[in-house]
Amino acid sequence: LCCCFTSPTQVHLGDRFGDVMELDTGSDEAPRVAFSHLAIVTRAAVDEKRRFLVTGDKDEKVRISRADNTRVIHSFCLGHTSFISAVVPIPSSDLIVSTAANGCVRLWRMTGECLAEVRIQGCISAAAGGKALVVCLLEGSTALKVVRVHQDPPGLSPEEHLELGHCPQAVGIGSLNGRSVVLAVNRSGHLCLPVDLETREPVKIGTLTSLMAGADVPADTVNLHKHNADHDGDGERPVMKRARHVQ
Predict the structure, then answer these.
(1) How confident is the model over 106-122, as pLDDT tens digits?
(2) Nearest-10 Cα torsion for 119, 195, 140, 81
(3) In the Cβ-directed half-sphere of 171, how many Cα atoms lie within 13 Å?
(4) How many angstroms separate the CA atoms of 43 and 56, rounded?
């Protein structure tokens, strides 16, 4: 259901059985179980310096493990009351932001200390962040909720919605010519033009604009979204259904 690189060749993957698998891309060895949650692992991320692996689960828990030895638990972040929909380490700090499906956004230290909490109206299905901002994807909404992250003193403050004009299924924050931009993928699998976080306008830059003008993902592409998964006859392993194209 989720994965992240904890080193240039090492990937950690969380599955619906609660296991976090460790895979070395430079080796032919099969993936091994690094550690386990007691519920479906919903999100995984690693901090900027790759010191800690942060994982969230469907039982409202956030676990912080040492990236060099993931069996060692550094801390837990406890207090959410709905399943974890995103974990976002904040660059150049020891802070992380977690979001839950019920609209709760929390700021934590890596030690597990909760520093701030804000509530957003709507169901948060994903989030992405940078040094000072986190954007939250709201289920069924064409707008992203922007939350500013303060480091000194630590805190969170909601800002205006960022209107995209379409319902995204994935978002990310990047830098383009020194500007912070939001990249989004729509429900057809189309990578849309980046949106400047300051001006709230699409960024149109020659070659980049033409690269974004490609075709949508084919309708019969396998959809790995959790709601399109089912179990096979023995009830143990998931079988992925093909996605239906919805206009």
Answers:
(1) 999 999 999 999 999 99
(2) -30
(3) 33
(4) 5
Minimal CA–CA distance to 136: which of 113, 118, 154? 118
- Whether pTM > 0.85 for this model: the answer is no
Q: Shortest CA distance to 153 belongs to which of 126, 116, 120?
A: 116
**How far is CA 164 from each of CA 141, 189, 234, 247, rounded to the nearest angstrom?**
9, 15, 42, 18
- Residue 35: how many other CB atoms lie within 10 Å: 20
Mean pLDDT of 178-196: 84
d(CA 88, CA 47): 8
* Residues pairing with 77 in the sheet: 62
| CB half-sphere exposure, 23, CA atoms < 13 A | 13
- Give the pLDDT score at 66: 94
Q: Report how far residue 214's alpha carbon sits from residue 218's, in angstroms, rounded to the nearest whole number.
A: 12
Provide the 8-state DSSP code for 199. Answer: T
Beta-bridge mates of residue 4: 12
- Residue 21's DSSP bridge partners are 13, 33
Query: Omega into 153 within 30° of 0, i.e. cis?
Result: yes
Q: Under a CB-based contact definition with an 8 Å cutoff, are residues 54 and 97 in contact?
A: no
Asked whether the predicted pLDDT for residue 207 surpasses 80, the reply is no
Phi-psi domain of 194 (left: phi exceeds 0; alpha: psi -120 through 50; beta: other): beta
